[in-house]
Amino acid sequence: MAKKKHALTTRLWHWVNAVAIIVLFMTGLNISNAHRHLYWGHYGFDANDAWLHVIRFPGWATIPGHYNLALARDWHITMAWPFGIGVLFIWVAMLLNGHFRRDLMTAPKDWTPGAVIASVKAHSGANAGAHHGYNSVQKILYGGVFGVLLPLMLISGLAISPGSGGYAPWLIDLFGGRQSARSLHFIAAWGIFGFFVIHIVLALSDWRLILEMFTGGKREDGAPPAPPQPEPVAEPALAAEEGAPAHG
Amino acid sequence: MVDLPRRSLLAGMAALGASACSKINDSETTQEVFKAAEDGHRALHRALAGKQGLAKEFTRDQRSPTFRGNGSVTVADPFYQDQLAKGFPDWKLEVRGLVETPLALSLAEVRALPQRTQITRHDCVEGWSAIGEWQGVQLGHLLDAAKVKKEAKFIVFRCADLYHGKPYYESIDMVDAYHPQTIIAHSLNGEPLPEKNGAPYRMRIERQLGYKQAKFVQAIEAVTSFDQIGQGGGGFWEDFAGYQWYAGV
Where does residue B62 rank: exposed (0-12), middle (13-18), buried (19+ CB within 10 A)? Predict the structure, then answer.
């Protein structure tokens, strides 16, 4: 049975989330310019207590393109909605349609150096893409993004809001204080940015990967729980089309 | 030389982007979406926390070593400066507007009312936080003493300072006005408020950002609407810079 490589829920979420995180990141840089010091703990206002002094992000990197805290905040906390609901949505979808179990869930063997080397080999050279499913490095990276960075962005963002103290003071304590939550929000944002760069570079290496994120592509080894079968004789081009993992 | 066309191309793209963005930002739809998000956050916070849900209170040893004074930190008015030097003996705090019994209280009278002490975190819109111990009178207590009328929908705080040449003011709705931690504070860390923190009175509205915590408060005014006050935004920063009126996010 020919199945789509990317489920409709995945594609829909992917593009909504792409827009949301670009706006959130660039407005976030504008907001960062308002106070360019990061602290640990509950309080922090004195630059001498900061663990990090952040550069002033230039206008081309921010939304809007000049310092405007009010407008940057308007965009940021509005776009937080599609982002936050999207993270919940994709997790539910991934758990229901088996994407998580099939592609992202790691086994102990995925964490071995051998698995990492095998992943790198599979991802480069003439044979790139001639395998099915996600390799170990991809599982770990995607798992880190879905399991750690995206939820961390969401809950640290909530913890920064003064209103959250009224309904979830434990959330702020979880981070060890509002300033810690703010620091982690910043760190996780750059973690997502790092992933974004790798993701874009790898996706641009084969434009069909980007097209497939619109059309869904084809997946022929359809039965979800079955482990991917190696295909020793596959045309590289064909294999890349049907079996290539979503690099990016 | 090679760089030049690329730069002008980039500049052109940036300019195009900027003009497109300002159109998006200024559009009525965008503004309505922002307003919906702001109202939505307020409704959601109220639903989750309840009207009376308390902001976290800290212990004395969790206070920040100092409390930053930011924004408007001084009042030019000679009467104010004279009163500041003397400890505000002739300074009156008015409770007025839609009340049956307008009040004009001296600092000694305010200090003689039932007091609330709370150690809370102050979150600036810029991102920094400070923790201090505030003492003062619950706003709800003053409103009850003045017999606030039923038609009052908002409480406006009139301040003694001019900031960027304009009178500072702020406003909150009746839910926040009657929140137990909403106090009109006269002391910080056991001392009378210093000028930079708003002597002789500043508001504490603990579930919202710093710009709502009006300093140098002279009058508390009950109104049905703040459309006719300032530029109608409900506060100095709301008028001056477009900050959100509900500052719980």
Answer: middle
For the stretch B4-17, pLDDT in tens is 455 565 566 556 66
B138-160 pLDDT, tens digit per residue, is 999 999 999 999 999 999 999 99
pLDDT band at B46; cut points 50, 70, 90: very high
Residues of A in contact with B57 (CB under 8 A): none
Pick the CATH number of A8-243 from 3.20.20.80, 1.20.950.20, 3.10.129.10, 1.25.40.10: 1.20.950.20
User: CB count, 10 Å around CB of A43?
Assistant: 25
Write out the E strands in A6-124: 37-38, 52-53
Whether residue B45 and residue A60 make contact (CB cut-off 8 A), yes or no, is no
ipTM: 0.90
The percent of residues above 90 in pLDDT, for chain B, comes to 87
Distance in Å, alpha carbon of B88 to nearest chain A alpha carbon = 30
8-state DSSP, B101: S
B185, two tokens? 């504070």
Kindly report the nearest CA distance between residue B158 and chain A, in angstroms.
23
Taking residues B45-70, what's their average pLDDT?
94
The residue segments making up the domain with residue B102 are 54-241
Q: What is the pLDDT of residues A153-177, one digit of tens each?
A: 999 999 999 999 888 989 999 999 9
| φ/ψ (deg, to 5) at A226 | -65, 135
The 3-state DSSP class for residue A26 equals helix
Q: Specify whether the CB–CB gap between B64 and A43 falls below 8 A.
A: yes
Give the count of beta carbons closer than 10 Å to the beta carbon of residue B219.
18
- List the CATH number of the domain containing B66: 3.90.420.10
CB pair distance less than 8 Å for B128 and A167: no
Instruction: Grade residue A231 by pLDDT with cuts at 50, 70 and 90.
Output: very low
Q: Which residues of A touch B21 (CB under 8 A)?
A: 63-65
Do residues A100 and A94 make contact, with C-beta atoms less than 8 angstroms apart? yes
Pair B247, A76: CB distance under 8 Å: no
Asked if B122 and B15 sit in the same domain, the reply is no
Alpha helix (H) residue ranges in B27-92: 28-49, 78-86
Hey, what long-range contacts does B36-40 have (CB within 8 A, 24 or more apart)? B37/A74, B37/A77, B37/A78, B37/A81, B38/B244, B38/B245, B38/B246, B39/B246
